[in-house]
Each structure stands twice: as C-alpha cells, then as structure tokens.
Amino acid sequence: MQTDTLIIGGGLSGLSLAARLAAEGHDFLLAEARDRLGGRILTERLDAASFDLGPAWFWPGQPRIAALIEQLNLSRFEQFSNGELTYEDEQRQVLRGRGHASMEGSWRLHGGLAALIDALAQGIPAERIHMATPVKALARSGGHITASTRDGTQIRARRVVLALPPRVAAGLSFLPDLPGEARTAMQGIATWMAGQAKALAVYDRPFWREAGLSGDAMSRVGPIVEIHDASPAEGGPYALFGFIGVPPLARSDAQLLRQQVRAQLGRLFGPAATAPRQLFLKDWAFDPFTATDQDQQPLYAHPRYGLPRALSRLWDGRLILAGTEVAPQFGGYLEGALEAAELAHLHLNAVES
To answer: Residues 332, 145: contact at Cβ < 8 Å?
Structure first.
C-alpha cells in the first residue's frame, strides 16, 4: 500500500487528524492496532445507557472539544453532584458530608465518549481506516517511510504521524534508529492514565441518590480510592464509577478484585451496592497498546507535558508525534489529544510547503 500520510493510532488524536485530512481531500491511511477505534476512550453499553471506562469528563475552558461537540451535533450534560459526599477512613469508618463533589462542574457526553469517536469516524472514508493493524517497524529511505505491520503488510508514506503515547511509540523499531536523546525523551514521558484500573458498577436503581448521597466517595482503604456517579443524564440503568488505587501487580487476580470492589461498595453505600447488575473492570496498565512496563505505577499528579526539543523535526520533520502527552497546554486531557492533532496538522502543512 502507498499513501501520502500514514497516521498510526485511531484514538481521539488520530481520528481528529484523519477527519481534518479527509475534509481537505488529502491522501492518507490510518492504522489502528486494536479491533476498535477510540484508543483510551472505551465506552461500555447496557440497555440504552453508555458508560465510560477510560476518560469520562471534559471541562469549561477547553475550546477544541466544545467546538467539536457542537460541530458533530452531539450534546453534553453536567456531572451529577447533588447530595452528600461519603468518606472512608483508615479504620473503615464511613463518614458523610466531608468535602464537596470533586467533579462538580465537569461535563460528560450523552452516549458516552464513544459517541464522539463514532461521529468522527463517520466523516472518514471506511477504506482509509485499517483496524487490527499493529505497526511494528518504520524504515526511512529517501523521501519515504515504510511501515511494516505484524502480519507483514507494508505501507509506504511520505510522512508518518505517531498518534500514540510516546512510550508506546518508543517500542517500535526505527531504521535508521532515532537519536539516543529522542528515545530517552520518548521513554521519559509518562503515559496518561496508563497505570490506572477502573471499576464501574451498574444498578437498576440510584439508591444512593434516594438516600441523599451524591455518589462521590473517597476512601483510605480501597481498593477503590475515588468514586463518582456515572449514570446517564436521564433514566437508567444507573452506575457508580471508581478509580482503583491498588498497584498493578497487586490487582492481577480479577476475581478477588471484583469481590473486594463489591464489599467496599457495600460498606460505602449499603447492602444494595454489593449486587450490581453488572460490574465492569478495565485495567489499563495491562493493555499493551496503552501501557508499557514503565507505566506500571499510577500517576498521582499531572505531569508537565509538551513536545521535548529532542522530538521535534524527527527524520527531517516527516515523523511527527501527536499523542495527547505532547500537547503543550492540555496534555493528558481529551482537549490535549485535539490540541496535539491540531499541531500535527500544522506540521504536515509545513512539510508539504
């Protein structure tokens, strides 16, 4: 196969860039390693409701995602936060009303963030997207770069955009090899969300709301350390969503973890919480297309993201990084994925000229 621009990665950044190129009539292909689009955006559906197991929120003051949602005729709603906060101390004593809902004022998307991914994909010709196509190597020769996939397919392109976490991109084979400082820089950029595991419990009734609780909870015991209401804007089923604070190597037993999650939900919200209609778990630390061994520890603070100098003008500007981690202002956020795609688009135009 041959194309002008190859985009590697079909998450929000890669799809956003692909949609721009499609609208402009450019020649491109998008290769996605998974058998689905969205990358770290992962939405589970049950009945008429959608539940996000990757990123779930965006905020006022993030202009790109607000504009994209409007452009795609999607709609948002405010995170539910009415009621008391629940707190569990080190002795498993459950207290009410300590603090405020930490996600109050944030926005969620009707239909989950998969609605955003689906709408973007609809604007891209299907023949331009190749799913279940993991790229393993890139080789530069003259004015072209050849990408080799795991099944032996080769894609020849003039420019390549790595819409991937930099650490995942560093795992590719490069010929000629990238400068040592470039590899070091790629490996030093922590992958946002990669060390996290998330649990989402679905119920037919929002019994916590009926008891005057917001669904927000903080725990010093775990395994879930932070919980929020994850219900749809209207109707059911209803849900509680939590970040698991147990380190990756200590949560490899999924059955035991499920038992611990149910027990904790019961402590925090009462007996009804121990029997969810469905309990979804997603451990991003063991997702090979998101995390590397370096990402086994969760992030407890937001890293300083942006594109290091060593990663600019790779292969004379024909190899461009565009994951959310290289966005200078909103790195790590959904807005950062769109910011990175926007900057990659500018770089592509600069190379073209």
So the answer is: no
Strands (DSSP E) along the chain, which ranges? 2-8, 28-31, 43-46, 49-52, 76-78, 84-88, 94-96, 107-109, 129-130, 135-141, 144-149, 154-162, 173-175, 197-203, 213-219, 224-229, 238-244, 278-283, 319-321
Asked whether 45 and 110 are in contact (CB, 8 A), the reply is no
Whole-angstrom distance, CA of residue 340 vs CA of residue 14: 9
DSSP state of 311: G
pLDDT tens, position by position, 59-79: 999 999 999 999 999 999 999
DSSP code at position 58: B
Per-position DSSP letters for 190-255, written without gaps between them:
PPTTTT-EEEEEEESS-HHHHTTEEEEEEESS-SEEEEEE---SSSS-EEEEEEE-S-GGG---HH
Nearest to 65 by CA among 348, 292, 342: 342
What pLDDT, on a 0 to 100 scale, did the predictor assign at position 250?
86
DSSP structural state of residue 148: E
Write down the pLDDT at residue 350. 79
Residue whose entry in the numeric block shows the structure tokens 């058998």: 35
Helix (H) or strand (E) holding 118: helix 114-122
Supply the angle between the helices 12-23 and 334-352 in degrees, to the nearest 10.
40
The answer to whether the predicted template modeling score (pTM) of the entire model surpasses 0.85 is yes
Place of tokens 């015991």: 221
Give pLDDT, residue 86. 94
143: exposed, middle or buried (C-beta count within 10 Å: 0-12, 13-18, 19+)? exposed
For 19-61, how does the pLDDT look when each residue is reduced to its tens digit (9 = 90+)? 999 999 999 999 999 999 999 999 999 999 999 999 999 999 9
The amino acid present at 214, given as its one-letter code, is: S
- Which stretches of the chain drop beneath a pLDDT of 70? 98-101, 298-300, 351-353
